[in-house]
Every structure is written in structure tokens, then in C-alpha cells.
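Before the break, one more example. Copy the sequence into your notebook; we will annotate it together after we see the structure.
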Amino acid sequence: MSNDKDDKTPIASSEETSPVTKLGDDNHVITTKGFSGPVPPPDMLHEYENVLPGAAERIFILAEKNQSASEKITYGVISNDKEKIRYSFIVSIVSLIVPFAPAAISMYLGQNPFLSGGLGIIGAIILILLPKIGARPEADSSTE
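Here is what the structure looks like once it is written out:
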């Protein structure tokens, strides 16, 4: 099904041709062309240019704007992920230091061992519950 013309088109583009349809006694050929990717193949780009001078340049400008918007979205997702990682790191450090520091200080000072143990147990409970309490709500993707 491949021919030399297909070998010259960009990898991301493709052409589709529908089959011959018989309507009554006449044969009709219906041809549709399509492509996938930011820029149409050169022959299709030339056809656009023949119909409307300057169309090829406008198509390239639109493709560049589309690429720029895509890069901004990707950058936003990456920076959001970095913020989530930073937030998780801070929460984990706080959840380790805050509950266990008083228990360690209490043990060092020779206070009541039940106080040190109680502070340690409270720290363990906080370690378990804090990620659930401090979790940010995720955006609901079903409303899109």
C-alpha cells in the first residue's frame, strides 16, 4: 500500500482515500485527504497556497502558536509537580521533627518514661494521619 509519494511525506502525516462507491449506474470516486500533525504534507500545503495566497505561512504561524501553548501547559504541569514534591518534603520533615523531638528531649532530661512513650506514640499517630490531613484535594477531572 506504500508508494514513493508516501515516503516523502512527514512521519506524522498520513493521507486517507475512501473506496469507490457505486451509486446507481454511475461510478463515483470520493477522495478525502487528511493529515495528523502540526503541519500538512508539502503537496497539501501547496494546494492551500494555490487557493489562498499566504495560507501556508499562516498555517506555520498557527503551528508555532500551538507548540508554544503546548510548552506552556507542560511547564505548568512540571512546576505544579515540583510544588507538590516540595510540599510533601516539608510535611514529612515536620511530621518527623515535631512529635519525636519532645519525646527525645523528655528522655534526655530523665522525665517520666510514660511521658516520653506517650509523646512517641502521639508522634507515630501524627505520622500516620498527617498525610491524610494535609493532603490537598485533587482537581476533579470529570467536570471537564
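Confidence is low (pLDDT under 50) at residues 1-15. The chain has four helices and two strands. Try to locate both features in your own notes.
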